[in-house]
Write a structure and sequence with these properties.
By secondary structure, this protein is an alpha+beta fold. It is 40% helix and 21% strand. It is globular, with a radius of gyration of 20 Å. One of its GO terms (biological process) is intracellular signal transduction.
Length: 264
Amino acid sequence: MITEIIKGLQRTLFDRPLKSGLLLQGRYYINEVLGMGSYGITYLAHDRLTETTVVLKQLRTTKAKTESGLRSFQRESEILKAVQHPQVPKLLDEFQTDKGLFITMEWIQGDTFEDLIFRDHHTYSEKETITILLELLNIVESFHKKRIIHRDLRIPNIIQRNEKLHIIDFGLACFLSDQEAADPYDHPEKLRMRAITVESDLFALGHFALFLLYSAYEPQSKKEKSWEDELNISISLKAILRKMLQLDDPFHSVSEARSQLNQI
């Protein structure tokens, strides 16, 4: 508890976001703060050289003082260079100023599925959910083949733009050869999602699929039930989700999951 309070004070005192209107490198004009993650602060900026909107990520000052923080920021850059996929943001630039270390990325302007469900009231059937899962699995497989694990395939990091899906935010991504100590006090679900394994990305996508399927769910009673009892989906899909969620013997590759989804 005390550790968390100290970390919060450090963020307040030393990790303050840069102000909008600031010009970096004589090129990047900061428009707004998009968010603050574990290691970085993300901004929407205007690139005066290309006249395009880009995403800037700044390594937090407190993290820049640690070896693990510097390594994680460097690793995100390395991973984006390695991925090279049209449905993943391109790495555009890397630079350092008196304000810190930065990377510049392509801005994927689109909608999260939270937007589509709660703002636009879209609901997703079993068939639509499977179609979305298959497209995501194809993207994920492309970086798994390069021995890269995303480890953060949550709702905010999956974007729909022009009817295509995109995966963003590789801030927690790792190479399979990387080693990182897990916090034994973390929630079991977080430990499964953050594990440096192929199964961790499939686990996260299993939860994402449940989020989509619940968009069409209408409670019939106040009694709390399991997702298997509440959702009106096929036995085949339930079996696949149980494996993705590691409730049964899990899939060990994207191809295993995709093969079974294609059979429904």
